[in-house]
Amino acid sequence: MRVSTLGGSFRVVRTQRLAAKSTGDEMLGISVGISGNSRVRQDGQFAALSLGDAVLYQAHSVWELATEGDSETQLIKFSRDILPPGLREIDESIPRLRVHSAATKLLAHYLDQLDRSAADLTAVQRADAGQAAIALLVMALRSPDVAAPDGADPVLLDVVKAYVRAHLCEPLGAEELARRHHISVRQLYRLFERIDTTPGVYVRTQRLLAARNLLVDTKYIGLSIGRVAAMAGFANVRTFNRAFHQEFGATAGDWRQQANRTPAPSLSPA
Predict the structure, then answer these.
(1) CA end-to-end span of the chain, whole Å?
(2) Distance between CA atoms of 62 and 69, rounded to whole angstroms?
(3) Alpha helix (H) ranges present in the chain?
(4) In 3-state terms, the chain is what percent helix, strand and coil (to 5)?
(5) Exposure check for the chain: N or C terminus, fewer CB within 10 A?
(6) 3-class DSSP state for residue 3?
């Protein structure tokens, strides 16, 4: 749920009566600062939220979220059971997620992008994106003094890959991807080395797969090859045609004609 205010104020309160009705500690919540300023108070503790900040709180306690002026805050509720056993016993609320930390900012940015892109994702992609969100939450909850787990890089790689697939029409150079995910370009290349490719090759492959699916989609059968190329993120149709033939061994036009004669299944992104 998003809470937006334009020049006014807004309060969301979990009262003592509602907290007393809680069946236990199973439900947790996160407030993510998207724009403007807001604040969260629970158990006598207070946290201010600005852009990219996030705080965690518990459903069995009294809490209050307040926004003022032009602001936007995202609220997420989830079950404690989805967390790893070592992180389920949260005896602190607001301090458990560190505002202003790099991990929290990455989580907040991803949740914002997921909310904006969810309607354009398939059901399978939404499920994958949700799993990536939980993995980022786990990363943000871990103490910064503890060495990163072996699974940290695969999780971040999955997040970057999901972002690419959801934003194929946008600029997706290495510098932009690194900036979007608050990492260095060097670290971005290191992530893609895990799957024996580079960020540029991965983006190109995903755009070609998207174009190949569009070419056989009956909703877009009347579109020109150039329009299909643009929808998949290619600015130049000649570059697209050359890349398509190199990747699939056929021209885009030949692929479309063959598909019209014998419908082919769409390809899922890797």
Answers:
(1) 30
(2) 24
(3) 16-20, 85-88, 102-117, 123-141, 152-166, 174-180, 185-193, 199-216, 225-231, 237-248, 252-261
(4) 50, 20, 30
(5) N
(6) strand
